[in-house]
Amino acid sequence: MFEKRPVNLVRSPVPVPQDGLHLPEPPAVLREGYSAIAASLLQLAGETGSDRLYVAFDGTHGAPFQAVLQKAVDALEQGGHSVTLIGSGSYLKTSEELRTHFAANITDNRAFGYFTEGSLEDYFRAGAREEAARRLDEAAPGTDRASFCIVFGPGAYWLGEGRFDLSYYLDVSREYQQAGHRQELLNFGLNWNRDAVEKYKIALFVEWPILETYRKQILEQMDYYMDLNQPKQPVMTAVTALRHMISDIAKSPLRVKPFYAPGVWGGQFLKQLADLPEDWVNCAWSFEPIAPENSILLEYEGKQIEIPFLLVMQNEHTTILGERLTGLFGDYFPIRFNYLDTMDGDNLSCQVHPTQDYIRSRFNEFMAQQESYYIMEQQGDSGVYLGLTEACSPEQFRHDVLKAQQTGIPLPLTDYVNRYESRKGDLFLIPPGTVHSAGKDNLVLEVSSTTWWFTFKIYDFLRKDLDGKPRPINMDYAFDNIDFTKKTAWVEDQLMPSPVLLHQQGENEEYVLGQRADLLFYVHRLHLRDRWRDHTHGEMTMYNLVEGEAVRIVSAADEAVFVELHYAESYILPAVLGGYTIINLGSAPCRLIKAGVSKAWDVSFLEP
């Protein structure tokens, strides 16, 4: 059965933080509920002789700070402590000033911006820290009991220059934030947003680069980490304990929590497979993983905590990627698996992705969007659009696309773009500059470079999005990047490879499905009857079970370390895993997609 909330077991003992709580038994590593926050604050008051205590509640924008503050203040006041609250939002630049400051990053394009290289300080007005320092100094001391001065909100720790007796980082996933964006949550510091598309654009190009980098910089200095993805049942742990748990899970096969989203062309297959809410009109995408977007669930002593996968990569990138890939990509996970579901849905837009030079110069994105489509399931007359017809010319193609947009008369797309029948098990390679689209009635497993946002729509069948607004069409960007040499004969020779047998073990076989010099990834397929022995050879490897019931992946070094992989699930095998065995648990042969970074790929995306 497909598991949509997979857990990653912490297998080694986690040292209990020695925080001196006066409880009948030592405190748990993972503490559930708001009472844990109150207990840690009251413990601080009981252990110090100070008449004035400073506490920071820093965290991710969109985290439910209000709920935490209410519980904390109630507990402190009931304990006889006075409380002064200082919100970081009081020291931000105005919404208008922020839009002006980040204008070059936000841009006037509906979907695309320019990745900022700014820092948290850019959000705050000049002299903010000095103003906050005066407020902190003015906080009245307690008489019989210590008073508390709490600085809260994103940037609280920075604002108080770290002068805190106790500090907490309140965190939520990007998935949680985007759910908030679809409701009333605005971008950090802004007092209005045009729509959800603008919210995502500003988050992607401004907010996340700054606030997630800030989290990376300060987290080790914080005392506690709080998972608030389930606001009614928060989970708190010491940062030292979190670091230990991350280190432990990074040595074993990992599975992120899948992230689902509906779309105008979405299908019904994933909705049924993952038992998604009935009121969803469809499910278009599932990310598993697009590393910056996904979170991961850790389990220890029967309790779970959800953290961004970015935190795992930040701390254990060499353990997961290996030395060579760390040298190429740093702590950035380079490959994504994601699904495109058009089963009983519709065609994706006709689109193209930018070249490396273009994406870097125009958007400040360091990795080109290289893709491939693996056809996992299909029905009826399904197809994939790939490359241009031999007769297609830039002038005529552009003219006729514009004409369709202006007149509302549909474009005969196959006059310009090749359409190929898609069958289960087919692989289509999509280097940057290749015009393409997944047609209706496919379940596509994308094996691609991690970059995911830079899709330049050429033609979208005259549709509106689920919000009723026209979908962004990016004609200028698209025609800047279309490679008009990628036409029928070349496409059929270069982008539609046939499987080539690579290795054999008994009746089990590994095939090369696709690999090119201009793609950083390779795609192999394992045909498994009973068992297969393999080795990571010091580099991250990814698997997805594309046919069959279930397999077990077992560490050769320790057979107690294993995971079970069911149909359509994906696992990351870290570089340090070394030798492993894959065992077919089903009654029939199965097939797995195996992917990783090509051994021949030597292009580093790190700054020189």
Molecular structure report:
By secondary structure, the protein is an alpha+beta fold. The chain is about 25% helix and about 25% strand. Residues about 20-25 have low confidence and may be disordered.
What distance separates the N and C termini? Answer: 46 Å
Spatial arrangement of strands, main beta sheet: 2-8-7-6-3-5-4
The total count of helices amounts to: 16
Largest sheet: 7 strands, mixed
- Cα radius of gyration in angstroms: 26 Å
Regions with little confidence, pLDDT below 50 for 5+ residues: 20-24
Class from secondary-structure proportions? alpha+beta
Strand segment count: 31
Envelope shape:
globular
Strand proportion: 25-35%
Q: Round the mean pLDDT to the nearest integer and report it.
A: 95
Helix content: 25-40%
Summary of the model, kept short:
By secondary structure, the chain is an alpha+beta fold. 26% of the residues lie in helices and 27% in strands.
Jot down its keywords.
608 residues; alpha+beta; 7-stranded mixed β-sheet; 6-stranded antiparallel β-sheet; 16 helices; 26% helix; globular
